[in-house]
Automatic annotation (TrEMBL):
Pfam families: SpoU_methylase. GO terms for molecular function: RNA binding; RNA methyltransferase activity. It comes from Natrarchaeobius halalkaliphilus. GO terms for biological process: tRNA nucleoside ribose methylation. InterPro entries: Alpha/beta_knot_MTases, RNA_MeTrfase_TrmJ/LasT, SpoU_MeTrfase, tRNA_m1G_MTases_N. Belongs to the class IV-like SAM-binding methyltransferase superfamily. RNA methyltransferase TrmH family. Residues 19-169 form the tRNA/rRNA methyltransferase SpoU type domain. One of its GO terms (cellular component) is cytosol. This is RNA methyltransferase. Keywords: Methyltransferase, S-adenosyl-L-methionine, Transferase. SUPFAM superfamilies: alpha/beta knot. It comes from the Archaea.
Length: 255
């Protein structure tokens, strides 16, 4: 781990938001956050008063592949350096007891953050607090904006590592493109209309074959279309259903 003053030019680092963790007590939480950062494309980890990060301990144990880069490249900084050098987003639970003039107001949800942060000029840091007491009111008062994960009002306080994972997941559009994520293109495998029409035709044949009452057929067909429409079936699924309905339509002596 390096300290910020030893970096020759910290301003040339990635424009992706940095993640700052203030005075974490549990090395495992630091490792969990490093891992989530790698999962969602974040690189710059800033640690204020970090715990001992033993290469054989929980931080590296929990970090997964982030043990190769995010965690060893983490920078030790002071809280002052963060507020001086970054647009800061303080992540904190908001409780019913906080009145609206409290330092936790106004706040945005992680889902709202990514659009707005994309327009911020300069570097941004998401700031997470201590396991036991979070960020102090004095620290929150020095932070530019607040982000809170909506959760059960009876118990809105998440574990530090889990809170960071949720925030980073929600704002991943800032760090990952669709190409980076590389999920299969769902559009391409969705069943085509002609295939679905063949299935509907086969359902009509089955209704006739089982002598489903004429006056009910139109309504039954509409219901089947709705069910299939909501199911968002793939080409392969429709073809399998088509085969089954066709077999059911054929009389035993034709099979
Ligand atoms: C275990 S919590 C701290 C609990 C502390 N009693 C408090 O109320 O802040 C550790 C850190 O996780 C993050 N966190 C926990 N719940 C959160 C929530 N609902 N929204 C945003 N961040 C949260 C905050 O950064 C918090 O400082």
């Amino acid at each position: 781990m390096s300290d910020q003053s030893s970096r020759s030019d910290s301003t040339t680092r990635s424009s992706k938001p940095a993640v700052a963790v203030v005075d974490a007590q549990s090395p495992g939480n630091v490792g969990t956050i490093a891992r989530a950062m790698k999962n969602f494309g974040f690189e710059e980890l800033l640690l204020v008063d970090p715990p001992e990060l033993d290469p054989d301990g929980d931080a590296y144990g929990f970090a997964g592949h982030a043990r190769e880069d995010v965690l060893p490249n983490a920078t030790e900084v002071t809280f002052d350096e963060i507020v001086e050098n970054y647009h800061t987003v303080g992540c904190t639970a908001v409780t019913n007891e906080d009145d609206r003039s409290h330092v936790r107001f106004p706040f945005s949800t992680p889902a709202d953050l990514s659009d707005r942060l994309s327009t911020v000029d300069g570097r941004t840091a998401l700031v997470f607090g201590r396991e036991r007491v979070g960020l102090t009111n004095e620290e929150l008062a020095r932070i530019d904006e607040i982000c809170s994960i909506p959760a059960n009002a009876d118990y809105p306080v998440l574990n530090l590592g889990q809170a960071a994972t949720i925030v980073l997941y929600e704002i991943r559009p800032l760090t990952l493109s669709d190409e980076d994520i590389q999920l299969p293109d769902v559009e391409r495998v969705r069943a085509s209309e002609p295939t679905l029409d063949r299935l509907y035709g086969q359902w009509e044949s089955l209704l006739a074959e089982i002598n489903h009452p004429e006056e009910k057929r139109e309504k039954t067909m509409r219901m089947l279309r709705r069910v299939h429409g909501r199911a968002d079936l793939t080409e392969r699924e429709v073809n399998t259903l088509l085969g089954l309905v066709r077999r059911a339509t054929e009389r035993p002596d034709q099979q």
